[in-house]
Design brief:
globular, about 190 residues
């Protein structure tokens, strides 16, 4: 017969193991169909035009028990830029702007994450046009749950602004604004 104190210890260990499993980090793969990166830039001081990137991939991990152990990595193919104008898209892909032959991928990799409710503060390295800069953004976790196809999903969005000149893109300063507003809607499938 197992002594009562040992039984309590085994019970405590079992509860601890169950709790650890309950709060284990979840890994997600970006769903490219339901994830998008949209940008807006001022044009001639009278309006803003919008564009998007059609090829976004990556992964993220959510650790609810320890948000600091969470992470995100995104990859965006620069030549997937789409502004609803083939002529403009080709110019944006040229050395005047993105120079997609030399710099084919835009990346973001988190270095620090903290959370307060649904707002996650994410610091990470944004690499674009051959320049890497640390940025801090606020990510709003919208939700998570089962989808109709048997998958488990999580997602949210972030809105932030960068200066294109900080990444070495200075062509047409004046006619085009320096500040670029970026919105990233992220949805991932746990796997």
């Amino acid at each position: 017969m197992i002594p009562r104190t040992w039984r309590r210890s085994f019970l405590a260990l079992a509860l601890l193991a169950t709790s650890a499993a309950t709060f284990a980090a979840d890994s997600y793969k970006i769903d490219p169909v339901h994830t998008n990166v949209i940008f807006a830039i001022e044009h001639l001081g009278v309006s803003k035009f919008h564009g998007r990137f059609n090829d976004v991939s990556g992964t993220f991990t959510i650790d609810k028990a320890n948000p600091a152990a969470s992470s995100i990595e995104l990859q965006i193919k620069a030549d997937s830029v789409d502004t609803h104008s083939e002529k403009r898209d080709n110019h944006i892909k040229s050395p005047d702007f993105f120079n997609v032959r030399q710099f084919p991928v835009i990346t973001f990799k988190s270095t620090k994450i903290s959370a307060k409710g649904k707002i996650w503060t994410i610091t990470g390295d944004l690499s674009f046009h051959g320049v890497t800069r640390s940025i801090t953004v606020e990510f709003e976790k919208i939700g998570e749950g089962n989808d109709p196809w048997g998958n488990y999903r999580a997602g949210g969005l972030v809105h932030f602004t960068i200066k294109r000149s900080d990444f070495g893109i200075k062509y047409m300063q004046g006619p085009l604004g320096d500040e670029v507003e970026i919105t990233v809607n992220i949805e991932g499938i746990r796997g």
